[in-house]
Design a protein that fits this description.
The protein is an alpha+beta fold. It is built from 23 helices and 25 strands. Residues 238-357, 690-802 form the ABC3 transporter permease C-terminal domain.
C-alpha cells in the first residue's frame, strides 16, 4: 500500500501541494523557534578584550533559591547585578600550577563631552609603554584628542582634569590601576580575572566562582548575554509550543479535508476488497511522504528563518548583539519529529473513519456524510472547555497584575481546541441564524450559500477552524499586550510621585545631590535606585523566581506606597520596608535576610509594612545601601518633587541652573515614563512579531484550505449552471459562502479570545473590555473577510471557466 500511496500522489496535485505547504511552514517555524532556544541555552558570546585569556575567573552569577517552605527543593536563579571578586584572589590564582598571567579587570563609565566611554585599569590594557600616573589618562585615538593635551572627564558624577599621556587604537579609556580601583566605585574589587594557563581544568578555586573557557569567556565581559539567553529560552519555548499546536490544527484540517474529498475513491477501494488496515496504511503512507518531503526542504530554510528572527530580536534590543546565533542538528530533529508526528497522527485520525466503513455501505457513506460528533470529539471538547474555564477562574482568583497573562494566554488555545472539536455543529447552527440576513441581502444565491453551508457543515468547518484560530490568537495576544502596556504605564504614573528627574550617566555626586535639594522650588529630592532582591530567610511563598523588585530611596514622599505599620522615615542604614503581601514576618522590628542583586547576603531590620498596587509590590531600601550592590555601584538618578505652586517649567529651569557645570541632565516625569514605556515596547514588539508569524502561518492555511475546498467543486458548479444558474450567480454564491465562513470564523474567534481577555482585564484593569484601539480588531476582521472572499471566489472563477458540460463530464 505504500507503493500505491506514492503512485496516487501525482494524480492529486492540489491536495498534495496544500498538505505540503502546511507541513513545510510548520516545520520551518518550529525549527526556527528550536534554533532560538538552542541559542538561548548556549548564550555564546565570544570574548573581545579577553580573547588573549585562555580562561576567565568570574563570580558565580546564579544561586540556589529554596522553592517551598520546609522542603529541600531549590531552583537556580540568576542574579541581576554583577558579582565582583576580591582583588586578593589574584594571588591564589597565580599559585595554581600552569598559570603564567593573571589580570584583574574593572569597567566603569566615563564621559568626554558628549562621548560615552568605558574605562579600565592599565593592567588590563596589555599595551606597550609605561603605565599612566595618577593624573594621567590614555584615550582612544578616535576620541579626537591628541597626546599631550588636557581633558575634562566626567567620572562618578564629577568633572576631573587629566593629562592625556598617549592615545591608542583601542576604544577604551585607561587609568592608573590604583586610580581605576577607586573610580570603579568598588575599591578592592574586580569584575573578573583574565588568566593565561596551559591547564584551565586545574583552576579549582572553590564555591562561588566560575571558570569560563571558550565562548563562555564572553559571559564575564558581557553579562547581559546571559540575561539575553534567559529571556530567549522561555520566549522560544512558548512560541515553539504555540507553533506546534497551530501546526497540528492546520495540518490536521488540511489532511482531513483532503481525505474527505476522496471519499468516493476510498469507498471504491473499500468495496473491491481493500481491508481497513490497508486503507489506513495507504493514507498514512501518503501523509508521511508529504511530511518527509516537507521536513527535508524545511531543513535548509529553518536555520535561515531562525537567523532572520534572531536578527530582528537583536536589532529591536531584546537580545544583546554580542550573542551568537547557533542552530545545529537538534532543532531540525525536533522540527522534523513534531511535523511528522502531527502529519502521522492527523493521517491516522483522517483514515480511521474511512477504515471502519463496511464494504456494503462504502458508496452510500461517500454520497451521504453521516454524523460528525464522535465520543472522542465530545470528550476532548469538554476537557478543553473545562481547562479554559479553570484557567479563567485561576486568573480571577489567584493572579495579580500583569502576571495574569501567564494563565490567560494558554486559555486561548484550550478554548480554540474545544471550539474546533464541535465546529461542524456550531457552523451549522450559525448558518441557520444567518439564513434570514443572507437571503435578504443576496436573494437566491444567498439562500444557496446557506444551504450548501448547512449541508456540508463538516467540509465548511475545515475552513472555519483556521479563521477562528487566526482571529482568536491575533485578537487575544494583541489586546493582552496592549492592556498590559497600558496597565503598566498607568501603574508607573500613579506610583511615581515626582515632577522632575535629574540623571547622571556616570553617577550623581554628593555635591550634585546637595545642589538639587537646595534648588529653588524643590520640596523633596530622593536618589532613585532600582534592582532586584531575594528574601532568603524566613521563606517567602509569594516570591517568584525573579525575586522582588527593589527600590532604593531616601525620601518616601517620592513613592506612592501607603504605610500600614511603622515609619518610612526610619529607612536608613540596614533597614527595609516590606509589602504587606510578603509571606514573612510582618512585625516592625523583626529581621529578614536578603540576597541582593550582586549575591551579597544582608540581614535587615523591618521598619515599615507598606501597601502597594497588586502585582507591583516592591521592597523599599535605603538608596545608598541598594546602590552599593548594583553593577553601577552608585546613584544615577534623583527624583524631585516641586513645592506647592511651582510649575513644571519653573522647576526644570531651577534645577538646570542649580546643576550647571555638573555632568547631569534634567528632565520631567515623562522622561522616566518614556524609559519605562520603551522597555514595555520592546517586549510588545517581540510579542507582535511572534504572533504575526504564527497568525501568518494560520492565514496561509486559511487560503490553502479554502482554495483546495473550492477548486474541487468543478462538477457541482457545472451542474448548477446546467440547471439555469449563470456564471455570475455561481460566483456570487461562492462569495456568499466565503463571507459566511469568514463571519462564522470571526464570531468563534472572538468568543475564543474573550475567554482569555475578559478574566485578564478584570484582574489587570478592573474592566471587562481591553485597552487598545478598536481599529486593531477591525483590521483583524477585515483581513479575515478579504482573505476568505478571495480564497473562495478566485478558485471558483477558475473552476467555472470550463464549459458546464465538460465540467460535469470530467467530474472532480
Amino acid at each position: 500500500m505504500f507503493g500505491l500511496a506514492l503512485r496516487t500522489l501525482r494524480f492529486r496535485t492540489g491536495g498534495f501541494i496544500a498538505a505540503f505547504v502546511a507541513a513545510f511552514l510548520g516545520a520551518v517555524i518550529v525549527s526556527a523557534c528550536a534554533g532560538l532556544m538552542e541559542t538561548g541555552i548556549r548564550s555564546a558570546a565570544p570574548p573581545h578584550r579577553l580573547a588573549w585569556a585562555s580562561a576567565v575567573v568570574a563570580g558565580q552569577q546564579d544561586f540556589e533559591l529554596r522553592k517551598h517552605s520546609g522542603k529541600p527543593k531549590t531552583q537556580s536563579v540568576a542574579l541581576p547585578e554583577r558579582v565582583r571578586l576580591d582583588r586578593s584572589l589574584a594571588e591564589k590564582i597565580r599559585a595554581t600550577p600552569g598559570v603564567s598571567t593573571v589580570v584583574g579587570e574593572v569597567n566603569f563609565p566615563v564621559s568626554l563631552g558628549k562621548q560615552a566611554l568605558v574605562a579600565h585599569g592599565w593592567e588590563s590594557a596589555r599595551l606597550p609603554g609605561p603605565a599612566p600616573r595618577a593624573d594621567e589618562v590614555v584615550l582612544p585615538a578616535a576620541s579626537g584628542v591628541s597626546a599631550g593635551s588636557t581633558v575634562d572627564l566626567a567620572v562618578q558624577g564629577r568633572i576631573s582634569r587629566y593629562h592625556v599621556v598617549r592615545t591608542s587604537a583601542s576604544t577604551e579609556v585607561f587609568f592608573a590601576d590604583d586610580v581605576a580601583d577607586q573610580l570603579s566605585g568598588h575599591p578592592g574589587k574586580v569584575d573578573y580575572f583574565g588568566v593565561v594557563t596551559d591547564n584551565p581544568a586545574a583552576l579549582q578555586l572553590g564555591s562561588g566562582l566560575s571558570v569560563l573557557t571558550g565562548d563562555e569567556r564572553g559571559l564575564a565581559e558581557f553579562p547581559e548575554a546571559q540575561a539575553s539567553g534567559g529571556r530567549l529560552i522561555p520566549l522560544a519555548g512558548v512560541a515553539g509550543g504555540l507553533s506546534i499546536l497551530v501546526a497540528v490544527f492546520v495540518i490536521a484540517s488540511t489532511l482531513m479535508l483532503s481525505v474527505r474529498q476522496r471519499q468516493r475513491e476510498l469507498a471504491l477501494l473499500r468495496a473491491i476488497g481493500t481491508t481497513p488496515r490497508q486503507l489506513r496504511r495507504m493514507v498514512l503512507g501518503e501523509a508521511l511522504v508529504i511530511g518527509v518531503l516537507a521536513t527535508g526542504v524545511a531543513a535548509a530554510l529553518g536555520p535561515v528563518f531562525g537567523r532572520w528572527l534572531f536578527d530582528q530580536f537583536t536589532s529591536g534590543g531584546f537580545i544583546s548583539p554580542v550573542v551568537q546565533f547557533h542552530q545545529g542538528w537538534i532543532p531540525m530533529l525536533i522540527a522534523a519529529g513534531a511535523t511528522l508526528l502531527a502529519v502521522g497522527s492527523s493521517a491516522l485520525v483522517a483514515g480511521f473513519r474511512v477504515g471502519r466503513i463496511r464494504p456494503t455501505e462504502a458508496l452510500a457513506e461517500a454520497s451521504v456524510p453521516r454524523g460528525w460528533l464522535t465520543p472522542l470529539r465530545l470528550i476532548v471538547a469538554l476537557l478543553c472547555f473545562g481547562g479554559g474555564t479553570a484557567l479563567g477562574i485561576v486568573t480571577l482568583a489567584v493572579m495579580t497584575g500583569p502576571i495574569a497573562a501567564s494563565t490567560a494566554g494558554p486559555a486561548v488555545m484550550l478554548w480554540a481546541i474545544g471550539v474546533a472539536m464541535i465546529s461542524p455543529g456550531v457552523t451549522k447552527l450559525t448558518a441557520i441564524l444567518f439564513q434570514g440576513p443572507m437571503r435578504l441581502v443576496s436573494g437566491v444565491t444567498g439562500w444557496l450559500a446557506i444551504t450548501n453551508t448547512r449541508n456540508a457543515a463538516t467540509r465548511v468547518a475545515g475552513a472555519v477552524t483556521p479563521i477562528m484560530l487566526a482571529v482568536g490568537i491575533a485578537t487575544a495576544n494583541i489586546y493582552l499586550q496592549t492592556t498590559t502596556t497600558a496597565a503598566s504605564a498607568q501603574a508607573f504614573a500613579e506610583d511615581l510621585r515626582a515632577d522632575a528627574i535629574v540623571a547622571g550617566p556616570t553617577g550623581i555626586s554628593p555635591e550634585a545631590l546637595d545642589r538639587i535639594k537646595h534648588a529653588d522650588g524643590v520640596a523633596a529630592a530622593s536618589p532613585y535606585v532600582t534592582s532586584r532582591a531575594f528574601v532568603t530567610e524566613p521563606f517567602d511563598e509569594n516570591q517568584t523566581k525573579k525575586g522582588y523588585p527593589a527600590l532604593g530611596l531616601t525620601d518616601a514622599t517620592t513613592n506612592a506606597a501607603t504605610v500600614v505599620r511603622g515609619n518610612l522615615a526610619d529607612l536608613t542604614g540596614d533597614t527595609i520596608a516590606l509589602p504587606d503581601t510578603a509571606e514573612v514576618s510582618r512585625s516592625v522590628g523583626d529581621s529578614v535576610t536578603l540576597r541582593l542583586g550582586d549575591g551579597t547576603d544582608r540581614t535587615l531590620r523591618i521598619v515599615a509594612i507598606v501597601h502597594q498596587r497588586a502585582g507591583a509590590e516592591q521592597l523599599l531600601l535605603p538608596a545608598d545601601l541598594l546602590a552599593g550592590h548594583t553593577t553601577a555601584g552608585l546613584v544615577r538618578q534623583v527624583l524631585v518633587r516641586a513645592a506647592p505652586g511651582v510649575d513644571q517649567a519653573r522647576l526644570t529651569q531651577s534645577l538646570t541652573a542649580a546643576t550647571a557645570g555638573l555632568p547631569v541632565s534634567v528632565g520631567d516625569r515623562s522622561t522616566l515614563a518614556a524609559a519605562n514605556a520603551k522597555s514595555d515596547e520592546t517586549g510588545a514588539w517581540v510579542n507582535y512579531l511572534l504572533v504575526g508569524m504564527i497568525v501568518g502561518y494560520t492565514v496561509i492555511s486559511v487560503v490553502n484550505t479554502l482554495v483546495m475546498a473550492t477548486s474541487r467543486r468543478r462538477r457541482e458548479f457545472g451542474l448548477q449552471r446546467l440547471g439555469g444558474f449563470t456564471r455570475g450567480q455561481v460566483l456570487r454564491m461562492a462569495a456568499g459562502e466565503g463571507g459566511l465562513i469568514a463571519a462564522i470564523g470571526i464570531l468563534l474567534g472572538t468568543v475564543v479570545s474573550a475567554g482569555a481577555i475578559v478574566p485578564f482585564c478584570l484582574v489587570a484593569t478592573g474592566r471587562v473590555l481591553p485597552d487598545g484601539p478598536v481599529s486593531i480588531y477591525l483590521v483583524i476582521i477585515a483581513t479575515a473577510i478579504v482573505l476568505a472572499l478571495l480564497a473562495a471566489v478566485v478558485p471558483a472563477w477558475v473552476a467555472t471557466r470550463t464549459r458546464p458540460v465538460t465540467a460535469v463530464a470530467t467530474g472532480e
